[in-house]
Amino acid sequence: MTNPGAKLLLRSVSIKGQYYMEEGPAVTAPLQTGDRVHFQCDPDNPADPAAVRAFYGELDHLSIGYLQKEVSPVVALFLNGGYSVVGTVVDRSPKTGNVSVDVWADKP
């Protein structure tokens, strides 16, 4: 699911925050193992200026939550450095909607 030159940055990172979204945990229902997730820094997030938002879908970019707070600053460094950073879904909890992804970074 990644480019051949991409390097694994983080393994099994949680995407959280679905309960705070209008759709709730159902927002992650379409996700399946192997699906690609995209990331974007969200410096205007009042709860965490280092927040990294996760999106699903190539065209509509549906917001599905945020990377866990402990790892978002690391991912933000790569994003702000011009790297292409994507996640590959490795697990999804039907009950909570939480998603785990492996995070990959590719040189600019």
Explain this structure.
By secondary structure, this protein is mainly beta. The chain has a single domain, classed as Alpha-Beta Plaits (2-Layer Sandwich), CATH 3.30.70.2330. Helix content is 8%, strand content 41%. It contains one helix and six strands; from the N terminus they run E-E-E-E-H-E-E. The protein has a six-stranded antiparallel beta barrel. The longest helix has 9 residues. The two termini are 18 Å apart.
Strand-residue proportion: 35-45%
- Order of strands in the sheet with the most strands? 1-4-3-2-5-6
Order of helices and strands: EEEEHEE
Number of domains: 1
CATH class: Alpha Beta
The first-to-last residue Cα distance is 18 Å
How many helical stretches?
1
- Describe the global form: globular
Radius of gyration: 13 Å
The unreliable regions are: none
Q: If classified by CATH, what would the architecture be?
A: 2-Layer Sandwich
How would you sum up the major sheet?
6 strands, antiparallel, barrel
CATH fold-level name: Alpha-Beta Plaits
- Portion in helices: under 10%
Give the tally of β-strands.
6
SS-based structural class?
mainly beta
Mean pLDDT: 85
How would you briefly describe this protein structure?
It contains one helix and six strands, in the order ββββαββ.
What layout of secondary structure does this protein have?
Blueprint: E1 7-16, E2 36-41, E3 52-56, E4 62-67, H1 72-80, E5 84-92, E6 99-106
Antiparallel strand pairs: 1-4, 1-6, 2-3, 2-5, 3-4, 5-6
